[in-house]
Sequence to fold (1025 residues):
Amino acid sequence: MRRVEKSLGKQVRDSVNVPLLLITIALMVYGSIVVNSATAGMVGGPGLFKRHLVGIAVGLIPLAVAWAIDYKKLKHWTGPLLTFLAFLLISPRIPGLGTTAKGATSWLAIGDVRLFQPSEPAKLVFIVVMAALIAEYEGRIDKPRDAVRLLGYLGIAIVLILLQPDLGTGLVFVAIAFTMLLVGGMKGRYFAVLALVAIVGVAGILGADSTLDRMAGKDVALKDYQKDRLLVFVDSTRDPAGAGYNLAQSKIAIGSGGVSGTGLTSGTQSNLHFLPERHTDFIFAVLGEELGFTGALLLLGLYLALLVVSLAIAASSRDLYGALIVAGVMGMWLFQILENIGMTVGMMPITGIPLPFMSFGSSSMVTNLGGVGLLLSVWSRRYGT
Amino acid sequence: MTTFQQQLKSRFAALGLIVILVLASLLLRLWSMQVLSGEKYAAAAKNNRIREISLDAPRGRILDRNGKELVTNRATLAVSIDPANDEVRELIISGQSADKADDPTRADLERVFGGVAGLLGMTPQEVFEKVADSRVEALRPRVVAIDVPLDVVSQLSERQQEFPGVRIDEVAVREYPNGRLGAHVIGYTGEISEKQMAASDPTAAYELGDIVGKAGVEAQYENVLQGDKGRRLIEVNASGKPQRVIEEQSPVPGRDIRLTIDIEVQKVAEQALADALAEAHRQNFRKAKAGSAVVIDVKTGEVLAMASAPTYDPAVFLGGISQEEWARLTDKASEYPLNNRVVMAAYPPASTFKVITGLAGLQYDVTNSGKTYRCAGKWVGMGTQWPKMCWKHSGHGSISFDGGVEESCDVVFYEIGYEFYKRKAEELQSFSRTFGLGSDTGIDLPGEVSGRIPDAAWKKAFNENYPEYQTWLPGDTVNMSIGQGDTLTTPLQMATVYAGIANGGTVMTPHVLKDVLGSDGKVARSYEPSVLVNTGVSAPNLAIMKNALVRVTTQGTGAGAFQGFGVTVAGKTGTAEVYGKDDYAWFCAFAPAQTPKYAVAVVVEQGGHGGSVTAPAARNILAKLLGQKIVTVHTTDISR
Fold:
């Protein structure tokens, strides 16, 4: 009995990646502190903070489930998972299920109660499915038709997301696919083609949308505010009171934080409502204003640690499939960090992408913890048969 | 390690590199924004949330020389509208939009301002115009009406929720306890004009909407009276709604000033001037509507009273003068009541100028006290083709220089003037200028004109486009010698000339400020009397002139007016001919003749004769100062 117990203990210890868990906990604590500060001065602030904590608690379920499941078994579920993925992405459009907020139909709801954004967990499903598809090529994707096939799956997913329309989430899917294809061995020139298609695609969509709007005589397909956000990024003085206002206020908040910040709950940009969406998309601006460069450095340090540990887990994987899953999760996080912080400092266009583990919002918290679960699943099976 | 894992390793390295690049670029950007440009952004954040409201300083009071209030402040209830009110702000913002379509509709205005407008007897549009006035600072409550009746105030405060943004504030406005008394010296206040603002000292930090002095002492001593504005820093949120007061700096009230004016003398002067106008009408000079009177201390230049008719009520400017009222005050038919004629009007001084011609004659030995002249009523000194008449067409016969002053005989002065012409040295002009004529006296009041002492150079320049009129002729000097022709002086200038004669030839700069009081009510700074000009006229010559002037009031043209006056007065009547108008009546004097204290000048436009219209006014002003009885004098004077 004693020997068995001991081996069980070792088994558990082996399956736990302590650094990953510690970093995750640190990020969630840090995020909770900032969300608490951001919501403190808001109407119903305490309620929001409670919801944030509930989101974390709920997120432990997918973490545990993903951890428990042997990721290798998922390889055989590609068909059903693809179907599930398509359902998740289409579901907000299904009458009676979806609801529209801020011009995008990206939420599931029962009556007036918004449940979650299906495109969030869809990211994980997409990672698992793409990993299986890419892994088939055993690390060499050098035939055009193979590349076209894989990019086709990506394309379909993106079209479905753009129908919501949610440009930001679409970009996350591109980033996930990019990272996985990099690890999956796609040839360099296909990346060039991918980049070219993306640029032409964005320009084409904007142009086509303007034409469509003119033809229809009203704002159809891509919403004007989305186009504005993109164009403001190109020229931030374009409309300082409109779409550029958010960016300008966000930059003022972060810049005014200086080295040490104004202190928690003391940010004027945040508390006097100059910052839009301060507890969600612009949580980093609150952090930048109240905790300054020191706080930002700490956050970036935690993210670096998270990604380095993730990379180590990828490297520890016995099979390409596991490595691809980890790469996908990394791509998701890295891009969201780049896009979210980047937009608050004017490096990236403004989109509604949450900052991993920091932004208020259960859907993304659940997804990110699910991602941690996938990583742990790969890690704990690194010696597996 | 398999080849596959080696391949993967390089891909992981690439992925790691991307991670480093992404995080490093974010870090660099944050370093640049937070560490390098942190202060710039901090300033922007401050600018975002801090708004400054200025707090008006109470204006200093204006007192008379004995500390009696000429102008003070009173608290009144003003109905203001706070632009920070949500509904009001919405209308202001939509009104500011470049797009006409965004302008608030009639219904919007009625909804927000209808109630208050109705109670104030205004239209919602009028209220909105005051509220939306972009010339006023953004967050300053806009005064819509002052002196609002109490029943309206109570209705407004009882049903506050029906009147968005309406607040009742106690504001300070100017009060004039003596009504119109001294209006021209005091001046009036009003909102600063863009021109005034551009011309103002930047350290005074005026803002549009500020109340400043516009005329008189209010304008002259604006920087003393104004005080320093206080300021209130308030924090606003993103929609501009005030959150809290961050800092408040109380305003520093303006300083009180004490004038040289004596309220009691001022009252007499204004009454005397009004009586003179009435007397002119009694004598059938129906066009007499305007005039002025001034009395100064010969030793210090202090102005004891300064009256100008017609006058105005400075209170009409409070809370903004109506268009209608302004049009009336600036209309020619109303004789420009805003003008202070003592300093702003220049007339031919007529016979009052003879003191200058006489003194010049004595000083340059052109004449002397005993010199005898012959007046036949008509003077042909320049040739029979250029005859000049004495006012007394029958002639004065044989008359001395002194008698010429006493009787105001024109022929005596024609002779002196012609003599000066023949000397070709423009000595009469330069002598006039040594008394300060032809230039400002430098009195501390705005808008002073300098009058004119004509000479050859002036005539040439004046008739630039008329070559045939450019030559200085004998008649020009001869006309000038009796204060006619192109000679122009202000009443104040003539008062200073007589004061100079009284003061041994030293003319003091006339002034109305006595001193500036500190916040403790004690004198902080005093006006130091200064010498305007030292004429250098010899004492014997001054004595000759003084004696002749005394004869004017005892047995000459002014004798009727000064009958029974207990103090010896040295004075001179004047009756100016003005083309196309009735004669202007003048009287200038100083008293007591032996130990002079005060000099006075009185003019009534188109009032007729100096001896019978203005001399009685001067008598009563001097009577008040010298403790004599104030009387109504009806006398006759046919001199000029």
